[in-house]
Every structure is written in structure tokens, then in C-alpha cells.
Design brief:
Length: 393
């Protein structure tokens, strides 16, 4: 028996596990200190009322013979897919129901989708980047090349037509930087992909933070995307489903490579390897898309946006360069005094017990940068801002 040696080419632990371990050690040695966690992008507000009621009602149905359900369709129930279809339509994107696949979150499918592609493909990822794209492809032994994201291009790299890539990852609003591609910029990527027989894996997990109507929430708002892109979205950040788990993947029926239909391939993959998201959870997800659900989640999103403003204001006060936080829950800042990302991480943890995410954990261009999230409670965010204010003075 031989193991997959590619695992030896990834860091020993996942970025957020490394951070959690470090913070737990600090907590054990400093039991008198209150730690404020603004590192991993995990939500703190509870599920909204409409969602909880739907989940309870679905749980009751499961306890009654007449309404009990066993295996559901692997690709998700139509009642939820219809709601997602309508949601896309409200952004002028027309989808067929069988282009929508319900998942247990964007992260899982961003990794799972790789089952469909040859190991010889060259993968292009921006740097800095959500580590899952790099780690999952490294596990499969694929060659990875990087598109530099930096302050000069506002952390929004555009395609370089002299470079040949087969699989391209884009995330907008971006994790970790909070930068958002406009329609022209996304069109440039779509044209590149269509001209180079490449596929774009578009992570739209943070689309719900977009309030600027001119910015695209979905890659399918742009012409040409249906022949070159797959979109991954999740209710984790949209509706607080990080622990509840539900998302969706859109695979257009027009997507074909080597005369093979990618939508059919994905259906084949899912029906073989996945038994679907629990009925109870899909009913909760359906409630997110009702009128009341949308109103309630919007209140939560506004709350996080206000948190982002509180953090941004204190950074502005101290002239700390930063982006994000407006159309995104993430604030991406330049570490003061030329500190490295991990130096700043330690400095904040030791002096003010604030946990953030070192930019270098997202790639070499992240060195010297730091990510804070707006997903904390209001009380903790305010306290963190006060602590930062004092420290930076
Ligand atoms: C993050 O902090 O980058 C996110 O929580 C990661 C994720 O959604 O998996």
C-alpha cells in the first residue's frame, strides 16, 4: 500500500487549525485574559427566527410516518432549488433547475469538483488566496501557478494572456482581501477562459455583502460565463449556516470540454459520492429565501457591516492602510511598522489579546498584511477597536 505522497507537499495543518492551536495555548497560559477572536470567518449571530421555525417544522415532519423522508435527491430538493433559481433571477441570471446542485457548503464542493479534472491541468490561483484552493490541488499533485494580487492592482489581478492556465480560481468578494471584481474585470477573465479552453471556479460565498448594485454578485451576470464557469456559493456567511451546512453549486448545461458535458459529469459524480443535504436543513435553507427570511438575514448582514465600520474607523484614525469591509466581511490591513504578518499576530495576541489571521497564511503576497473579520459580536468588536486604539496610540 502506497500513500498519496502529495500530502507531504502541504503544510502540516490547515491555516485555521494552526491559529486555533496557537490561540488555545495562549489561553491556557493566560486564563485571566479575555481573548477576542476576529480570526476565522465564523459567524456569531444565531440563525434567524424564520429559519429556526422551518427547521423545527421539518424535524416534526420527520417524526411522523406520513411525512417522514428517507434518501432525498442527491442534487437537492426542488423546493430549495426553485428558491435559488428565483434568487438568481432577481439578479437577472436565468438558470435551469438542473443547473443548481445543493451542497453542504462551498468548501466541500470546491474540493470535490476536482474529481472531474485531469491531474495534468495547470491551476491558476491569485496570491493571496483562500488556502483550500491550493491545498486541494496540491493533494492531487496538480501544478499551481499564481496571479499576483497586490496593492498596485488593488488585490484584483487580471489575466495574463501570455500564461496558459487550465483551471482558474476566482473569489469575489475576495477572501482574504475583501476586494471585489467589477463586471469589466470579470469579463476579462471570462474572455481569457473561453479563448484558452480553461474553466473558472468562481467562489461567490460572500456575494451577500455586496450592496453596490454595479458590482456582480454572480459570474453568470456576465456574458460568456456559462461556457467557462462553475459557481460555488454557501449560506454560511449569508445566513449563519457555518454550523448548519448548506450551500449550492451552479454548473451550467452549456459547459463542455472535450465534447463532454460537465453538468452531466457532476451529476454522475454527486449521485455516486453524495447522498444530499439533510431534508431538515434544506427546509431551513428554503426559509432563507422567503421574504421574511431575506429581511431577517439582512438585519444580521447590516450588523456585521457596522462591525466592519467600527474596525475600519479605528484603522483610519491611525492611518493604517486597509481595504475591504464595505462589500465584504473581511478587512485587509497593512501591518504597522513593517512587521511581518506573524509578528503582528503575536503582537496583537500578547498585548491586546486580539486574534486575527496573518496575511502570509494566504500566500507570499500576503506577507506584511493581516486580516480581521467583522463576524464578532458588537460588544467584542467595540472592545477590540478600543484596545487597538490604545495600542496604536
Ligand atoms: C475564513 O475564515 O477564511 C473562512 O471561515 C473559511 C471558510 O469559510 O471555510
Amino acid at each position: 500500500m502506497n500513500i498519496n505522497k502529495n500530502y507531504q507537499n502541504i503544510a502540516e495543518s490547515y491555516l485555521f487549525s494552526t491559529i486555533a492551536k496557537k490561540v488555545n495555548e495562549f489561553a491556557q497560559n493566560n486564563t485571566d485574559k479575555k481573548i477576542i477572536r476576529l480570526g476565522i470567518g465564523d459567524v456569531t449571530l444565531p440563525l434567524c427566527k424564520t429559519v429556526v421555525e422551518a427547521i423545527k417544522a421539518a424535524a416534526d415532519e420527520m417524526g411522523i410516518k406520513e411525512t417522514f423522508r428517507g434518501y432525498g435527491p442527491e442534487q437537492g430538493y426542488d423546493f430549495l432549488k426553485t428558491k435559488i433559481q428565483q434568487y438568481y433571477l432577481s439578479h437577472n441570471v436565468v438558470l435551469d433547475l438542473d443547473e443548481i446542485f445543493i451542497s453542504d457548503g462551498a468548501k466541500s464542493d470546491l474540493g470535490n469538483i476536482l474529481d472531474l479534472f485531469d491531474f495534468d491541468n495547470t491551476v491558476l490561483v491569485p496570491d493571496p488566496v483562500y488556502p483550500v484552493y491550493v491545498d486541494t490541488n496540491t493533494m492531487a499533485g496538480r501544478k499551481i501557478i499564481y496571479a499576483n494580487a497586490n496593492a498596485d492592482n488593488n488585490f484584483l489581478p487580471l489575466p495574463d494572456t501570455t500564461i496558459k492556465a487550465d483551471i482558474i480560481y476566482l473569489c469575489s468578494p475576495n477572501n482574504p482581501t475583501g476586494a471585489v471584481y467589477n463586471k469589466d474585470q470579470l469579463k476579462a477573465w471570462i474572455d481569457y477562459a473561453n479563448n484558452n479552453n480553461a474553466i473558472i471556479l468562481f467562489d461567490s460565498a460572500y456575494e451577500c455583502f455586496i450592496t453596490d448594485e454595479t458590482l456582480p454578485r454572480s459570474i453568470f451576470e456576465i456574458d460568456g460565463a456559462k461556457t467557462c464557469a462553475i459557481e460555488f456559493c454557501s449560506l454560511s456567511k449569508t445566513a449563519g449556516f457555518t454550523g448548519t451546512r448548506c450551500g449550492y453549486t451552479v454548473v451550467p448545461k452549456d459547459l463542455e470540454f472535450e465534447n463532454v458535458n460537465i453538468n452531466k459529469m457532476w451529476l454522475r459524480r454527486q449521485t455516486t459520492k453524495f447522498n444530499g443535504v439533510p431534508y431538515i436543513i434544506q427546509r431551513g435553507a428554503e426559509a432563507v429565501f422567503t421574504k421574511e427570511g431575506q429581511k431577517e438575514i439582512q438585519e444580521n448582514l447590516n450588523y456585521y457591516k457596522e462591525n466592519a465600520k467600527i474596525i475600519s474607523d479605528v484603522l483610519k484614525k491611525h492611518n493604517i492602510w486597509h481595504i475591504g469591509g464595505k462589500q465584504s466581511p473581511y478587512i485587509w490591513l497593512k501591518c504597522p511598522n513593517n512587521m511581518t504578518s506573524w509578528e503582528f499576530f503575536d503582537y496583537l495576541l500578547e498585548n491586546v489579546q486580539i486574534v486575527g489571521t496573518p496575511g502570509s497564511g494566504f500566500g507570499k503576497n500576503g506577507e506584511g498584511y493581516f486580516r480581521l473579520t467583522s463576524f464578532g459580536s458588537r460588544e467584542n468588536t467595540q472592545e477590540a477597536a478600543e484596545r487597538l486604539d490604545k495600542l496604536l496610540n
